[in-house]
């Protein structure tokens, strides 16, 4: 636990409960019995709450009752005649199967005769597993024995265990009310049984309620009861009370079970306090409590939400070393963690492990895997998953399944396969959506089938699917690889999707005079009305189109507009010891235009007498989708053409540096006019790359 728990409540002899969603008794004070530290082994073999007679006054036979299920049962058998023991077992079995009526119960128990001992009554009640018949049996035995008030409480406590075993909390409460009507004062055993019954019935709020009733009946919760109720406080998210009890449990070495630790992990997970989840898990191992499947299935989702896929992988490996077999919950959590954390090979490994263990993989999980395959270009794996779904006999591909596979085929320009999948999708009764149209547009664009691009856009419009921002970016990117005579077809498609964008593109293609303020106003209005996530991709594509159309001034105007609108923020950065250019998430054309503007600004700064420090360019280390090239490799070759003495930093991938002295010498040798002319020719020669839109 964190230090804030250890620094408080060092001697928790009394405390007041915080407000709880299950109880209004927020001011009750609890005082705990002073108990010796409880060790794990002793509590496994004997628990005072499970042996009520031992905790009450001695029986008339002066022999302690022994739970037949405990290791001490052999001692009991030595002292109890075999015939009597066999008869008691037979009677108990008959009572468990009979109707809850006095005549039937009396007929069975008459075999005991009139001289029924307390030990025999406790034995019968303890072995019962029928909560409907138990009250009738209790009344019969009570009337036969006519016990003292203390011994009558023992019988009621043992009878209450039947309701706990049967998870009949309502019946347990009725029995408790009957105790009060008979003027019996409940003790710690009574409350411990009620709390455990509520816990087993997944009624944590009622468990808390019964725990908080104890002071009102003069009962002081002991270590066993407090350890039990930590689970309940954790489940109702009464963090303060759960932490207080948990802190005391560690200080006084109470025995805590696996379920309690799992509840604490879940509580902290719900609070998004993921470090505390791990702290509790570490405490669990230190205290020698072995995690079970439920523990791991509680911890792994917390680690997934904390976005720590590598940690999830380590925990899973530890789980397997502990000999615990994962189930569907484990696997599905790991799949989501690995996919979200870009552990793609590990995700596919989990998928294959699920198949080997014959654990069904739902369509939703398969779709997540297919989407991952589409992102990274795992064609064979995507086809394998798709065929697995179809051959499962349980699941069938849905809309997302077909969409993901079409995307994978499109990324590899497999036109016939993508078209076949589209036809199968329609034949299966699914209507295509924008996530189908966009990859098909990209697919036809890759193989320069412009007429098919137009056809699929028109087909989508017939289905009521209007190209969105991502689809329009794809169309713009295709234009940078399309012969001039066919650009009009693509402009028509764009205009049908977005008239404002179509007008801006037509402005560029038809070559209106550069510097036209109407163009800037129209483009500014377009970008301002565009969704935030599309602004930069759209501006990148428009600049790439300018580069393709031999319009460097338009490209600079668009870059300046993007900077003004804060689409391109912090591209240029000046620190006392270094001026840098940051080009991550820019297309090649936009990055080269930014370089053009930056070098021009550097030349002007040098001419005005400013002192230049060292210079740096950050291209990032990412690669274009399904390409071995990234911006860094493209930039390296163009810096060489510029004869710019930048060098790539060996310890900082994606960074290019030039010293202060070398930068000053290089810029002086160029001059601003020469720089502009040379850069214009270089920018126009930049090849456009396939961008991930």
Helix content: 55-70%
Q: Please write the CATH class name of the domain at 572-684.
A: Alpha Beta
In terms of quaternary structure, the protein is single chain
Shape call? elongated
Instruction: Please report the distance between the alpha carbons of the first and last residues.
Output: 46 Å
What does the radius of gyration come to? 38 Å
Largest sheet: 5 strands, mixed
The CATH architecture of the domain at 572-684 is 2-Layer Sandwich
Strand order of the largest sheet: 3-4-5-7-6
Output the CATH topology of the domain at 572-684.
Ribosomal Protein S8, Chain: A, domain 1
Report the total helices: 35
Q: Hey, roughly how much beta strand do the residues contain? A: under 5%
Poorly predicted regions: 1-29, 31-66, 71-78, 673-679, 681-693
What's the rounded overall pLDDT mean? 83
Assign the structural class, choosing from mainly alpha, mainly beta, alpha/beta, alpha+beta, or little secondary structure: mainly alpha
Number of strands: 7
Structural overview:
The protein is 62% helix and 4% strand. The protein is elongated, with a radius of gyration of 38 Å. Among the domains are: 475-566, no CATH class; 572-684, Ribosomal Protein S8, Chain: A, domain 1 (2-Layer Sandwich), CATH 3.30.1370.110. Helix 10 packs parallel to helix 12, helix 14 packs antiparallel against helix 15 and helix 20 (363-376) runs parallel beside helix 22 (399-411). The strands form two sheets. A five-stranded mixed β-sheet has the order 3-4-5-7-6. A two-stranded antiparallel ribbon has the order 1-2. The longest helix is centred in the C-terminal third of the chain and has 20 residues, at 588-607. It is built from 35 helices and seven strands.
